[in-house]
Backbone:
């Protein structure tokens, strides 16, 4: 018997502990938490170690996560930079739309003041050489534009149409040496001709030395050349000289319409003339700034009841 | 002398050796419990907790064929009960069952290699899981069949514990060398 117990002591003890476990289980299943003599002591002894381990583990994990986060931050930084560039691009586009909107509104308001028919056009190119001053427009004969038509901007006179094709036209700017516009000094009503210079800028020609012309005088179109409507701003006198010999004085003029910054212009019929109608029986349409859709951009809102287009109309 | 007697001949360890072994197992159990209740939760995100105490229990079943070994397994389970669940005796029962199963297998098979240790831990985890489910069904009338999710967790625990077996066994042997209990 003793030998049996000795040989099977492990199994017997294991069985004993199994029975103890089952006993504990059955007692605790009926009265949960009542029979746990050592549990409280275990908890008490282990608690401080658990606390310390938790703190150390937490600290380690924090450091590790901080490191991992740092790597993540680098990636996110790159992503956010990309996003920032994208947003900056969009903001620039937005700003461009806003500015275009403003310009087109001014153009529209200006066009409504004009007595003649107008065609709005977009500037698509500049002169190929430095000697002459011209612009290319995106409207041509098919839009009713012809050579000799005046080109205006809300700021004032831009120039004359010098060449046309079915879908484009070229503008000879006021500042080109070949141009000439009949003008008046607004303050004194003195007449003259504004013409361009090779060295850029414009001068007031054919004004007598004795005439009253001062720096700062505003110059407007006289309407006597049969081309430009009367009273459109041309520029301001920036320098007057009477030193040279001759009948006329020398006056430099700064055009009010800065051609280098123009993006949209209005082409009008010459005074007293009508724009040619290249299309049969066009429906009544509103003449306004270039259709933003054709520019691929969003333009100003159309006035109620009228269709905004680049087409001519009465 | 039979092979069993030759390989499992009872030896009478000295009191010092028994004390050293007790210290080693107590330290290991405490460390295992500390890790299981703190660090491993953080590392595994509470999904699967590797049962280090069970690996220790399997070690006892493999190498401590004595009353002290059985007692150790029971106390280990009891210790676990103090830190898990509300039903005292559940883990004690499961751990003692695992110890008994491992002991019975180790009595008949040569288990002194890494692969069989890993297999035993894997098997032990499954036995523990089924023991707990059985006890719950018997005592708390929780008769839920082993759901797929529970089976997956059990399998994952078993695999994780099996994977950690060489580390835990190595650590215990390192302790034994340090304490001179080889």
Residues:
């Amino acid at each position: 018997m003793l030998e049996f117990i000795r040989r099977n002591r492990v199994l017997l003890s294991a069985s004993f502990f199994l029975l103890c476990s089952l006993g504990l289980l059955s007692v605790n299943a009926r009265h949960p938490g009542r029979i746990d003599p050592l549990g409280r002591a275990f908890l008490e002894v282990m608690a401080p170690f658990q606390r310390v381990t938790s703190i150390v583990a937490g600290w380690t994990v924090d450091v590790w996560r901080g490191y991992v986060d740092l790597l993540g931050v680098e990636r996110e930084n790159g992503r956010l930079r990309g996003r920032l560039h994208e947003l900056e691009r969009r903001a620039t586009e937005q700003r461009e739309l806003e500015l275009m909107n403003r310009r087109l509104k001014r153009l529209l308001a200006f066009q409504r003041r004009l007595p003649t028919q107008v065609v709005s056009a977009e500037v698509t190119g500049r002169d190929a050489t430095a000697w002459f001053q011209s612009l290319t427009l995106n409207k041509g004969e098919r839009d009713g534009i012809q050579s000799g038509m005046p080109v205006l901007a809300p700021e004032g006179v831009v120039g004359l149409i010098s060449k046309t094709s079915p879908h484009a036209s070229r503008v000879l700017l006021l500042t080109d040496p070949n141009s000439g516009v009949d003008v008046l000094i607004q303050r004194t009503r003195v007449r003259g001709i504004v013409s361009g210079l090779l060295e850029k800028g414009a001068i007031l020609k054919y004004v007598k030395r004795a005439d009253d012309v001062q720096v700062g005088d505003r110059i407007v179109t006289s309407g006597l050349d049969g081309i430009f409507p009367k009273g459109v701003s041309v520029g301001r006198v920036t320098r007057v000289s009477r030193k040279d010999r001759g009948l006329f004085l020398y006056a430099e003029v700064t055009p009010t319409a800065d051609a280098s910054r123009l993006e949209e212009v209005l082409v009008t019929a010459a005074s007293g003339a009508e724009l040619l109608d290249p299309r049969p029986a066009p429906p009544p349409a509103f003449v306004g700034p270039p259709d933003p859709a054709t520019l691929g951009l969003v333009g100003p809102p159309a006035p109620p009841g009228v269709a905004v287009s680049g087409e001519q109309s009465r | 002398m039979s092979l069993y007697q030759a390989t499992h001949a009872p030896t009478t360890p000295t009191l010092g050796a028994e004390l050293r072994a007790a210290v080693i197992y107590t330290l290991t159990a405490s460390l295992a419990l500390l890790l299981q209740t703190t660090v491993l939760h953080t590392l595994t995100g509470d999904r699967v907790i590797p049962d280090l105490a069970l690996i220790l229990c399997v070690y006892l079943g493999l190498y401590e064929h004595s009353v002290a070994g059985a007692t150790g397994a029971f106390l280990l389970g009891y210790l676990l009960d103090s830190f898990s669940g509300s039903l005292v005796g559940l883990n004690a029962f499961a751990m003692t069952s695992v110890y008994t199963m491992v002991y019975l297998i180790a009595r008949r098979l040569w288990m002194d290699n890494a692969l069989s240790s890993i297999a035993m831990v894997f098997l032990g985890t499954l036995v523990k899981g089924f023991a707990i489910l059985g006890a719950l069904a018997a005592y708390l009338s929780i008769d839920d069949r082993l759901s797929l999710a529970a089976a997956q967790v059990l399998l994952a625990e078993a695999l994780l514990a099996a994977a950690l077996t060489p580390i835990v066994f190595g650590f215990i042997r390192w302790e034994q060398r340090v304490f001179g209990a080889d």
Remarks:
- Residues 148-178 of chain B form the longest helix (31 residues).
- Helices of chain B lie at 3-7, 15-37, 39-44, 52-63, 67-83, 90-108, 114-139, 148-178.
- Chain B has one domain: 15-177.
